[in-house]
Every structure is written in structure tokens, then in C-alpha cells.
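TEACHING EXERCISE
Course module: macromolecular assemblies
Task: Read the component lines below, then compare them to the predicted structure of the full complex.
Student: A.B.
Group: 4
Components provided:
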Amino acid sequence: MFLDHIWLIPLFPAFGAAMMFFFGRRMQKAAVSTVCVGVVVVAFVFACVTVVEYTHFAHGTGQPFEKIVYTWLGSGDAHLSFLKRDGTPAQFNADFGFLLDPLSVIWLLFVTGVGMLIHIYSIGYMAHEGGYYRFFGYLNLFMFSMLTLVLANNYVLLFVGWEGVGLCSYLLIGFYFHRKSANDAANKAFIVNRIGDAGFILGAFTLAWYLGSFRFLDINAAARSGHYLIGDTVLTAAALLLFVGACGKSAQIPLYVWLPDAMEGPTPVSALIHAATMVTAGVYMVARSNAIFVLAPTAMKTVAIIGALTAIFAASIGLVQNDIKRVLAYSTVSQLGYMFLALGVGAFAAGVFHVFTHAFFKALLFLGSGSVIHAVSGEQDMRNMGDLRGRIPTTFKTMFIATLAIAGIPPLAGFFSKDEILWQAWRSADGGFPYLWLIGFGTALMTAFYMARLIFLTFYGQPRMSQEVEHHIHESPKSMTGPLVVLAVCSALAGFLGVPHSLGGSNGFEKFLAPVFERGTEAAIAATEEPHHPAGEEHRKLEWLLMVLSVGAAVVGGGWAYRHYALAGKDYPEPIAVKAPPLYTVLYNKWFVDEAYDYAFTGRRKLGDIRLGAMGAGEASSWFDAKIIDGTVNGAGWSTRAVATLSTWWDKWIIDGVGVNGPAILARMISYPTRLLEWGLVQWYALVMVAGLLGFAVYYVWK
Amino acid sequence: MAEITTLHYLVVAAALFVLGVIGVLTRRNVVIVLMSIELILNAVNLNLVAFSRMWGNLHGQVFSVFIVVDAAAEAAVGLGILIAFFRNKETINVDEIDLLKW
Amino acid sequence: MTPEMTPVATPFFFYLLSGLAIIGGVLVITRRNAVHSALALIVTLLAVSGLYLMLYAPFVAGVQIIVYAGGIMVLFLFVIMLVNIERTVKERQFNRIWPAGVLAAAALLGLFVSVYVKGKTLLSDPVTGKPLWPDPTISLPDSSNTQQIGVMLYGNYMFAFEIASLLLLVAILGAVIMAKKRI
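Instructor-supplied answer key:
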């Protein structure tokens, strides 16, 4: 019953957004909070009930449930069909339809759940800000778009949600629109995302062209039917294009640059959109397309390598950043890299599991950092914090739990998900490779280091803020700490959903997701044929070893940070800056990627009068086109024109003059006498009538 | 004076008719042309009524009533056209109404 | 017809009314100012209506006064006021072909005259040999004239009457559509 009305879930927040759009300006803050938070709570409750119904009362055993409300684009009409690549006609159909299967269940639950907590948190966080209703309206609109994205049953509707979340991201990053940096960041996010979106559209349409449908179920069925070989070129291209889209939305190399700048938005936005939900849309989409990706090993390898590189790259930048939110932003990019690493080695369930746990602890970290910023009067620079643990205890405790979780200390959530990824990176049948594990291992080390650095700089050491700020430090209101506590509990316990077999668990999470990620015949055969497949006892020992190593890395990284930052006073030294100044400069300037992009793409950099980069190349080819190509064209044009002038003269005077106008003039001359009778005076015609009448009467009378 | 016969009426009607024809054929002012048409119609009416009297039945009078109806309709439409035309061309002279000449 | 109801001084009234009608007609087609023309036309119409009375046609006379003098002429006067421009008074009043028009009208008049003259002999009663029109004895029952016309309109002329009403409706719509600036 709830399952049949699943389409209502996105509409609740849409209703809230519409209310804010039409009436928000005139509503009290309390009313705004009631409406906007209320609709998300309702959506969450509805989602929970729906999921319970789905898992316990409906089809059971992970069969996808599809509800098509109506056909939104295209129809059953024959004339709307297109030809597939193999020449058979297919219908162009995009439904307003919803798909609930284990994968979307996961996303549905944590999007509504975490979203609800962040909405509650925002009541306290935004209490003193202007544009209160605007903020909540955007948040609700975001929830609507995200839920549409997650519940869509085809690529086109997914794309609607995809663009919707992009739009909301833009609006919310630029929420403080009077700040130029915020506007720039918003534009950057939007533009970079467009690049990815172009890839996504091309990928989706390639799939439709090749397989004949946008619907996930159709595409999965086709891909698993065994008609397509592993390594199929078109499917590989489609998978790579889809991955370009995922790169944009989920901030992977080379399109990750917008995410750190997106921290210009209010902190709840960073937590909701740029940490917990929206940036995982790329992961969702790749996981959703898993049937395609397993047929394209090249694409899988690309995903894994990009993911691993992004993970370590972003983590290395995070080591030295001083802005508390930026550290978290790079941490997010890095963790997203982990997720893609998992997807790329075929461990889809592990990637999704990490998305799930990451949503909790990263949202918690962001919300905690928001609480810290709130406490120190808007300061974001960690160099001006310190010794806050006693003054904002709830925030400290919850953030500490989250840090342990992200660093991978057992038995918190991050440990299970991250170790699953590392283990799969080592041994997965779909391209696991020890080097990938090594990169992940290094990333884990760095993660522990920078997260511990964040905690120590913020909560330990000497107070480094000004007297005035120190005086004002206060714990945040209940509406902010409440969500923190809930999220802390989740961060601590979520991992137990997926305890791996090697630790005596049943890995229920993976089992739950298994129906989504089942392999088709071809891929399944390939998977079993994988030669180096350690089995049994040996296999378990190796997994334990890797686990101990990564926990050790977490402890070591945290220990280093403790040594250098735990007692930091004013002007504390940065260890990397002390030991390797050039490396510090490079890391501090984020590997100069923004500058490189600036040189390569924006066209703002000039050497003398000549632009550099892509725009410069464009200008050069423009010059070549204008001078050389167009010169040739114009030359041809001139000669044509000369010939044409001559031909015009001939046409005008000889053809038209003698041939055409001659007969016309003749006809005019001949017709001149008749024209005299018809000269436009109506009374003349009446006179003729009278004359006719006279003639008629005279004829009759004197006949 | 002699007895007034039907012929007398016919002569009067003929005079009115000819006057109407002259008006229609010569005046430039459209309003006056329309009035001249009314004169012609009246002349016809007079004939009809006179013959009705002569033959001693009422068909002629009924016809004249129909002609009055016709005249009313003609005047209404004609004057409507006149107003529409005047709005466009700022003139009511017949010999300037020659858009269809070309 | 009873002697009491015989009209008195019939020739006098006939010549008076027909003189008024013809003078009015002449004025209609000669005045510069359209308002004067309209007033002259009213005189003509009233005189003709008097002639109808003399012909024992009171209903037609009434219709003449009510519809023509009361309705159509008011419409004319309104339109004259709407389109009245001083310029037309000062301009040429007759078009370039007026001699031809007058000539044609004169020919028409000649035709009428010759027909009437001829008709005296041509159109006499074939049985009695008496001319048809000087017979004043045939008279109409004037007392119930209107009633009888009504009976005929709703009897013999039913269809024509309905057509006439439709014609009026069309004329009304047509006039409104023509004269309105924006429909």
C-alpha cells in the first residue's frame, strides 16, 4: 500500500519547496521550520514504512519493485520509435517511474534519514541568518531532486534528479550571494558539473541506442542476457562516458576542483549535499549501471585507478590545509575516491557500504565543524582555535567518534567499510591489484593523520583565538547537538550491518545488495576463471593481516598527529613544512591544480598578447580560420561575385528586358483600351447598369 | 381639378426615381448617395402602393413593407461600411474609394 | 365606401404632397451639407407617407414614418455627425462623370414618359377597352388595413417574413462588425 504510493516520497519535500517559493517570504521562521522540517520527517517516516513493506511484505528476496506513474516522454506510438544500432526499432520511452530495489533502499534510507537530521540541525544553525525561508526552500528542493534521482527507474528521470541536485548545489553554494567568493564557487561547481553531465547524457543515450531502452531493468536484463561479450567496445565507451558524469558529480580527478570551493556554502549544506548525499550520486549511478561496467573491464580499470589516485591525491592536500571545512572537503574527495576504487575492482557492495557509513560520519564531521564555527563566532581557520574540548563537550565527543570512525578504528563504522574496500582492492576477481591496495593503505595513513590533526588543532593545545572570541564560546543549542548525537550513534553502530565473514559476521549488507549486483552468464564465468584466487584458511589469514596493517596505519597516523599538534600553541610548526618545505608549498597550494586549469582552460592567463591554454589554441585556430581559410573562401567569393555581376547584367537587360518584359509591355499596350472602361469609380459601374437597364427596357417596349 | 388617377402617382414616383438615380450617379458624398438610394426605394414603394390601391388588394402594401425592411438593412450595413472605411481612409468621397482598382 | 369617408379636396392634397416630395428630392441631391440633405429627405419621406394615407394604406404610412423618418434617418444623422468633416462641404460635390449621369437619368425619365404615354393604349382592359388606371371605384377596406396586412404577413408571406427577419439580424451583426474598432 505504501509501496504503491512510493511516488509520494519525493513530493513531500517538493511541497515544502513550493510553499517556500510561494509563501515563504511572508512566513514566520517558526512556520518555515515547521513546514520544511515537517515534510522531510514525513518523507523519512514514509520511506521507512515503504522499505519495511518492501523487505517484509512484498516480493521478498530483493526482487526490484517498479512503479510507473505515467509515461513522461515518448509513448507507445510507432512514430516515436528510433532505430537501434542493429537496425531494429525501439521505443523512445522515459517514464515518470520509480524503482525500489536494495540499492535504492540504501540510498532512500540514508538520504531521508541524514537529510532529516541536517534539516533539524539547520534550525539552530541558521537561526540568526537572513534568507531563512530561502535556505529551507532550497534544502527541500534538494531533497526532492535527490529522491527523484535515487528512485528513478530510468536514466532520463535519473538525469532530471541529477540536474536538480546540481541546481540546488549551485543555489546553496551561492547562498551568501553578496560574497563574491561564494558566487565564484557556485559558478565553478556548476560549470565543472556541466562537463560531467555532458558525459552522462552521451553515455545514457549510447546505452539507449545500443540496448534500446533507458530503463534500468531493461538494460540490466539485456546486459546480463549473454548477448554482449565482455569488452564490448560500445558498452565500454558508454561506461566510460557514464563515469565522466560520475567524475563530475562525485568530484573525482580531474573534475574534483569544485568540491573544496563548494565549502563557501553554509555548513549544513556542505554536510548534506557536499558530503553525505549529492556527491555520492556518482557512486550510485555507477553502482546502478554495474551490469554495464562488468562487461567493460577497461572502464572498470579506469574507475579503479581514478578512484585510487583521487583518494591519495586529495588526502595529501588535506594534510596541510588550515580551514577546518576544507580539510573535511578534501577528506570527502578522498573518501569518494575509496568508493570508486571499490566499484572499480568490482566490489560494488563494499563501495555502497562505504557510502552508507561515510554518510553518517562525514555528515557528523561537517555538522560538528559547523557547531565549532558557530562556537568561535564564525572563525574557520584552525590556527585560530584550540582547547575547545571542555567548552563544547558534546560537539567534541561526537566529532571524536566520527574521527575514529573515518580513521578506521574498530569497531566503528568506517573500519568495516574501509577494510572491506582495501581487501577487495587486494584480491578482487575483477582487477584487484596489490598496488591499488597500497595506494589505499597510504590514503588510510594520511586520513588518520589529517583527521587527528583536525581534532588536535581544534580541541586540544592552547587557545589561540582572540580574547573577545574566547569569551563568547558556547555550546550549540539542542536542535544542533541532537542530530550530532544521533549521527554519532549511527557512526558507531552502522558498521555492524556489514561485519565480514572473516570476523565471524555474516556480511548482511552485501547479502542484502546481492540481487542488484548479480552477474550475467558471461561475467560470472569470467569471474570463476580468475586464476589467482586464494581460498580457505590462507585467504582468511591474509585478510586478517591486511586488517591489522590498516588499523596500524590509523594508529600510526593518529600518533604522528598527536606528537606534532596535541600541544600546539600559537605559531606551532607544521611538521611537513619543517622537514620538506617544497613539498609543503606544493601541498598547501593544492598541487597547483587550480592554477594549471587556469592556464589551460579559462584563458585568463596571457603571455604578452597571446592567450594561453585551450582558449589560446582556440584563438590561434580562429586567426587561422579568419585569415587563411576565410581568405581562400573570400577569394573564391570575389571571383564568383564578378561572374555574377556580369551574369546579372545579362539577366537584367537581355533576358528580363527583351525576353520577359517585352511580351509584358506588349500585353499592357494591347489591354490599354479595355482598362479605360474599368477605372475604379463605383458610380461609373452604376451608370453602366443604368445604361443596361435602359437598353433592356427599350428593347422590350419597342420590340 | 381632375380626378387623381393612378397615373398621377406613377408620375410622382417616376420623378422621385429619376432624382434618386441622378443622386446616385453624380454625388461624391457617400452619405448622400445612400440617401438617394432611399429616394429610389421610396419611389418604388409609392408605385407598389398605388397599384395596390388600383387592384384593390394588399399584396402591394405587403411588398412595400418588405422593401422598408430591406431599406433598413441596407442603410445599416452601408453606413457600417462607411464608418469602417472612414476610419481607415479619412474620407467619404466615392471617387476616392478605389482600392480594388489595381 | 361610404360618402362620409370620401376624402375631401383630394387633388389639392395630392399636388401639395407630391410637390413637397419632389422639392425635397431635389434638395436631397443638391445640398452641399449632408445634414441639409438629410432634413430634405425627411420632408420627402413625410410627404410620401401622406401620399400613402391618400392611397388608403395607413399601415404603410405608419411604417414609413416610424421606420424611415424615425429610425433610418436618425441613423443617417448619427453617421453624418460621426464622419462629418468640414472639408467635404468646401470640395467639389459632383464627380467627374456627372453630365453622363444626368444624361442617363434623363433618358430614364424619357423612357418612363414614353411608356406612360404608350401605356394608355397598350395596357387597356382587353375586354372592356377601358384604360386600367383611372378606375377609382375599386377601393380598399381601410378600416381593417393593418389587421389584413398582418394576416397576409403571417399567412401567404410567412416564409418571406421570416427571411426578412433573418436579413435584419444579419444586417445588425454586419453593421456591428463593420463599425466596431476591435471585435
